[in-house]
Amino acid sequence: MSPAPLLEATRLTKHFALRRGLLGRRTDIVRAVDSISFTIEAGQTLGLVGESGCGKTTTSRMILRVEPPTSGDIRFEGAPLAALDREGLRHYRRSVQAVFQDPYASLDPRMRVAAIVGEPLVIGQRPTGTELRRRVRELLDLVGLPERAGRLFPHEFSGGQRQRIAIARALALSPKLVVLDEPVSALDVSIRAQILNLLHDLQRRLGISYLFIAHDLAAVAHMSHTIAVMYLGRIVEMGAAAEVALRAKHPYTQALFSAALPLDPGGRSEEIILSGEIPSPLTPPPGCRFHTRCSHVMDRCRRDEPPLHTESGRLVACHLYPQATA
Amino acid sequence: MSAAVIDVRNLKTHIVTRWGTIKAVDDVSFTVAPGETLGLVGESGSGKSMTCLSILRLVPRPAARIVGGAVILDGEDLLGKSEREMQRIRGRRVAMILQDPMSSLNPVFSVGMQVREPLAGYHGLSGRALRSRAVDLLASVGISSPESRLAAFPHQLSGGMRQRVVGAMAIAAPPRLLIADEPTTSLDLTIQAQYLRLLEELQERYRLAMIFVTHNLGIVAKMCDRVAVMYAGRIVEAGPVEEIFRAPLHPYTRALLESVPRLGESAEWLTAIEGQPPDLAVLPRGCAFAPRCPRVMDRCRAEEPPELAIAPGHSTRCWLHAPA
Hints:
By secondary structure, chain A is of the alpha/beta class.
């Protein structure tokens, strides 16, 4: 058998309570993430896609332990996070780092780059001055920045270079998993390929895993080994990246990837345009949450929520694909 | 081929800053015919939005100034018009849709009031006729139960719905030229697909000339007939979409097309464009793309390449294509 995955989420759920009405007496529940399960293997990338309100950022925040799950659990290297002691949690926090969308907001403008990149080391390992300088130089080199970059301030860099600084900082503690939340969408088009190549190269050299969140589906397909498609807090399809991107089974995945426009002026034919809007996660539709916009909707979809089950080598939650009776 | 709705000739817009004068729009020329869509592509700072604002004479003054060229709308040069005349042209003959619908809509007025305003102004409608035109207009941009939406405020609508309201206001006249500046960037993918379809329908119905500003090459492939690629304030290549996507002439266009990941292609590495976007305050001598160009020659660093017509309607500014 294969060893335990690096990270395993089981029936992960996050509900937010909203106080509404007079004096906040009525409480509504937003089911931001509703019982999702997935694994991230060592050295691999899980791509998380879906539209606003689907719960992908909430999922990443639970993994980063910014947001405690309402229920369900996360296991890291086989150990449940809920059972970790102080030392175990410190180890987890060092092992899981993040790079965010906007490198203009995520770097302190008053700190020099060497201090930004070295900060996690100073907090985590208390190295000597020489050690720290050596490691910072290594990290800058790793992300393709010259040594003298360490003496400058963030405003002296362009967006793409700032994102390199943010990546160097994320790598400082030699993490095993890096959460990439829209890492290139704030960058100029001509710079995006540089950063995607850098991330890919780092994964190969360091064996790190990524949780890659982005709305650019071609970029997600390019970077990921596995793709999970979320809709209103649920995973509706999950499987090998090429399968999900090119031979999608769930009608939502099909529509989503058909809306990612190809760079082909001739290929305008097989576009699927969904009607209607994304429902509010406050009041998700009964049955299949996608049934209000689905062109294949059947009576059953309005009533029963389809479970995620195996279909053509991936997991799909859709009544179009009857579950083989066990 | 009918006469162009808009004919921009050698347009130059400069911005005066502490660091010197920036040529935000530098000798830009193009035309758009009725029913035709021109894609204006480029990175932030390439001058695509400033070109559009120059057409409407809405450049941020006093720092930015239109210093040369002509903007000819149906035979009249807009650069010679008084501010009063321009006010009658904006919205009525040239309308614009911006990226963020919340910045185009007034949060304290209902949708109905905002949609009625241009209708009353352009067509002198009032009372019941005005209300029924407003309802028709909202229905024509795909807003369901438009009567009940008239009383809604912008914050009560989703992003996609708000952008539809902006679209309704833009076609109230209807205009001759519609400028769409990244109109779907703030929308979700499936909502973007709906909105692009709507723009196509509106364009067909009113035979609008359209300028579509975007950095998304997939949208250009889907929506545009011709495309102009901008770099550092200049159009470096312009031509029919099919031709440019099949056989790009300028190394920047080629690099842009190659650097974008494509669905279904499992190349391990993307072809990245080296270097950083240009700093407009300190542009190099010669071609602005030369420092990043994989095919740079000595001449590129010395002389700025002129606009070279390669095929009918297809031109580029690159020494590679200069006759020997």
